Prior knowledge:
Elements: H1 2-18, H2 31-42, H3 45-49, E1 62-65, E2 68-71, H4 88-97, H5 112-115, H6 120-132, H7 157-164, H8 178-189, H9 193-196, E3 214-216, E4 219-221, H10 237-246, E5 248-249, E6 253-254, H11 257-265, H12 272-284, H13 313-323, H14 330-334, H15 346-354, H16 356-359, H17 378-381, H18 386-394, E7 396-400, E8 403-407, H19 416-430, H20 439-446, H21 453-485
Helix pairs in contact: 2-6, 8-12, 10-12, 15-19, 18-19, 19-20
Subcellular location: Cell membrane
InterPro entries: Cyt_c-like_dom, Cyt_c-like_dom_sf, Cytochrome_c-type_DH, Membr-bd_ADH_cyt_c
Domain Cytochrome c: 31-134, 171-286, 342-430
Amino acid sequence: xxxxxxxxxxxxxxxxxxxxxxxxxxxxxxxxxxxxxxxxxxxxxxxxxxxxxxxxxxxxxxxxxxxxxxxxxxxxxxxxxxxxxxxxxxxxxxxxxxxxxxxxxxxxxxxxxxxxxxxxxxxxxxxxxxxxxxxxxxxxxxxxxxxxxxxxxxxxxxxxxxxxxxxxxxxxxxxxxxxxxxxxxxxxxxxxxxxxxxxxxxxxxxxxxxxxxxxxxxxxxxxxxxxxxxxxxxxxxxxxxxxxxxxxxxxxxxxxxxxxxxxxxxxxxxxxxxxxxxxxxxxxxxxxxxxxxxxxxxxxxxxxxxxxxxxxxxxxxxxxxxxxxxxxxxxxxxxxxxxxxxxxxxxxxxxxxxxxxxxxxxxxxxxxxxxxxxxxxxxxxxxxxxxxxxxxxxxxxxxxxxxxxxxxxxxxxxxxxxxxxxxxxxxxxxxxxxxxxxxxxxxxxxxxxxxxxxxxxxxxxxxxxxxxxxxxxxxxxxxxxxxxxx
Length: 486
């Protein structure tokens, strides 16, 4: 434990020494460009257009969309590989309408349906920043997007845009209107709906269920409407603003997956007034009630009446190996002996080896909340086990305004059955006992979650389309023959 706290302090010191500018490295005294930099932060541009450890906005980040991998492009002002030759009008059209300067359509993995609401003044500032302060990178991204048929037909997005792309006002939002400012940050710049709102058959957000929660690449983006049970109605405005800034709220939730990226690349840089505006707006959003949810996700669990200290040498070895980013290995996980605990389940054994040293055998975590409690925790009490499983598989690696947080990933070190066993142990011991997961579900989540309905139905739709085309062709041939016979 001391070693890990030392690692934590060392990592914090290194980050502080490196500064807090993150992926956006430019600093400018030009007020317009500085405003544009803030807009780029609020819109979370770097999260997709910058590889971790790579050059700012040089592209190459792989976005695991339900229809295939989409690679973010180079948006530096390079004249050969980026947007250096784009006019402001072309830039605005790409951001708001999803149409590149050369006329090809973008996929809505680039959240242009949300960015459509960016004001003219903010768009001008963003363009100024991107073209004058970002360093040009002339190299093309290593990968290009090449979705399979028929998703690779980019021109089909024109019809999708006709159906779903709106044209909201581009006027400035009254900065003194807290709810209006919060709505703008949540809906336009923050594009929260792109993850937290369910999608329909054609992969557009279903706004009748606005912010009701949705599954994204294996993770579950929870209900963030004002519902006091299914949503965030039980959170205070301060708790919400603090969570957005740091990535954690004691006794409520911790950010992981895509939300951790949003905190690290975007939200931690926003002003306190903007974060509180977002929180105030979210608490005003009409409640999306789910009758299947009877308790808030953070409302489950309590400290066990009896605490068994199961810390042992194998547990410490497992933790040391994980902290060093080396595989724990099946051999180590299989080498445990529990002669004094003959009735302990496999999930409990795995928890003892890999989890208890940080989260404590009681599940209470540490007093400073660096290692969070496993009870009163949205990951262990959620409506699904997705986030619990995904956190174990992929770990947590984020930097909020208060410093870095790290949990090792166990995807290489535990098989699907082991992940299921420890997930079930954690849920039943500290969270929602109704949550159950099996190896098949873990395998599916490890692969990125279930395919969307559109992908499942596409073969049938293509077959139906082919039949319709053949019938129309046959009808046309018949009509032509009759005409000639006359």
